[in-house]
Amino acid sequence: MSKINIVNMGIDLGTSRTVIACDNGVRAFVPSIVGFPKDAVSQKLFGKNVVVGEEALKHRMALNIIRPFERGVVKFSDEGMTDEEYNKSIEAARLILEHMVNIAKEGAIYESDQFIVRGVLGAPALASIKNKKALLDVARGILDDVLVASEPFTVAYGLGLLTNALIIDIGAGTVDICRMHGVIPTEEDQITTTKAGDYVDGVFFNLIKKKYPDVNLTLNMVKRFKEENATISEHGEKIYIEVPVKGKPERRDVTEELKQACRSIVPDIVKGVEGLIASFDPEFQSGLKENVILAGGGSQIIGLKKEIEDYMNKTLGYGRVIKIEEPLFAGANGALLLCKDMPDEYWHELKSRDSKKL
Ligand SMILES: Nc1ncnc2c1ncn2[C@@H]1O[C@H](COP(=O)(O)OP(=O)(O)OP(=O)(O)O)[C@@H](O)[C@H]1O
Ligand SMILES: [Mg+2]
User: Fold this and answer.
1) Is beta strand 17-22 parallel, antiparallel or unpaired with respect to 5-13?
2) How far apart are CA 197 and CA 28, in angstroms?
3) Cβ(173) to ligand 1 under 6 A?
């Protein structure tokens, strides 16, 4: 008799990359990007109609590119989108999710060919009802059971920080800040700002262009360079970027520009931290200040931890910031744990509720 296997997947559908962690041991990530061949030649080059992830990024000149989660689209705010744009984003997001589920299946050893894929999807802290519905649209038919959870909550859950902690998840499209106090966070416990990694790239790009109008740059080059060098620390050596000037590579000093760009997201983050602490029960405020957790790709900016601590010391009297070890997988790891911890009854209940709603 064939046995039904359940695969639990923690899924972080990030603006810049999608990350999965599964209980069959598969852990993987791809850039959140989908490409469609532009013409018959590119169709022949790829030998398929859809290209997902790294391959799409590499060959983006030959493809029509969609980044379905850019600026939080699908997950955060779909305002101002036409129905056609919305449907396209949903379709692209579905292709990414399907790609990830296939990766999860490849790594699995099944006793039979019957299995159920359960997933917890990470969404920005303040994803509206509409965006939760969008995520359910993305998952329909690809995951058998799905639960949408807030991104910083999944990070906290994965680290076992269910109480007395404030999570700052610095992604590409959003910074999500969330306080944990022993229950599932509500809207009041969370703040989302849109000045995150992509914003840093934009500021850095403009500052370089202003200082060196003759250099030839793309946002992608600037992003890669930032990821290797991001710092706001006052110590350290000068930072030079190698850029083409009239086709010839030249080295240019961008130390101040990079620091200024990395700093540009700090004021909104600390305002958010301050707001969530000040509006909390005064008896528990010190617990939050003790345990500020920096997560997400943007948390790797050197000196950021100290910058936030200094600011908290000044405005709130005290602050201890901890940078997590695995910023790339923290959201997916936590989502997986949540997925496994949810009792079967919960999934059954969810399924009957969703099938009524959808
Ligand atoms: N070493 C680094 N230093 C600074 N920034 C970095 C570094 N590595 C990655 N980043 C930035 O982190 C961001 C991506 O982080 P992450 O993968 O957590 O975001 P995401 O989950 O895709 O986005 P979101 O949570 O907004 O949907 C990008 O802006 C990227 O450039
Ligand atoms: Mg993220």
Assistant:
1) antiparallel
2) 21
3) yes
Q: Rounded to the nearest whole angstrom, what is the distance from the C-alpha of residue 29 to the centroid of ligand 2?
A: 12
Q: Whose CA is nearest to atom 29 of ligand 1?
A: 197
Q: How many Å lie between the centroid of ligand 2 and the Cα of residue 171?
A: 5
C-beta of 90 in contact with ligand 1 (< 6 A): no
Structural domains present in the chain: 5-158+329-357 (3.30.420.40), 163-195+264-323 (3.30.420.40), 197-263 (3.30.420.40)
What is the secondary structure of 229-259 as a DSSP string? Answer: H-B--SSS---EEEEEETTEEEEEE-HHHHH
- Chain segment 333-349, per-residue pLDDT in tens: 999 999 999 887 777 66
Closest ligand 1 atom to the C-alpha of 16?
22
Q: Which atom of ligand 1 is nearest to the CA of 69?
A: 27
Nearest ligand 1 atom, CA 295: 18
pTM of the model: 0.88
Question: Would you say residue 224 has pLDDT above 90?
Answer: yes
Express each pLDDT in 107-120 by its tens digit.
Answer: 666 555 677 899 99
Question: Separation of 10 CA from ligand 2 center, angstroms?
Answer: 13
Neighbours of 1 (CB within 10 A): 3
**17 CB within 6 A, ligand 1:** yes
Q: Which amino acid belongs to residue 96?
A: I
Spatial contact of 166 and 292, defined as CB atoms under 8 Å apart: yes
pLDDT at position 213 over 60: yes
pLDDT in tens, 158-212: 999 999 999 999 999 889 999 999 888 888 999 988 899 999 999 999 999 999 9
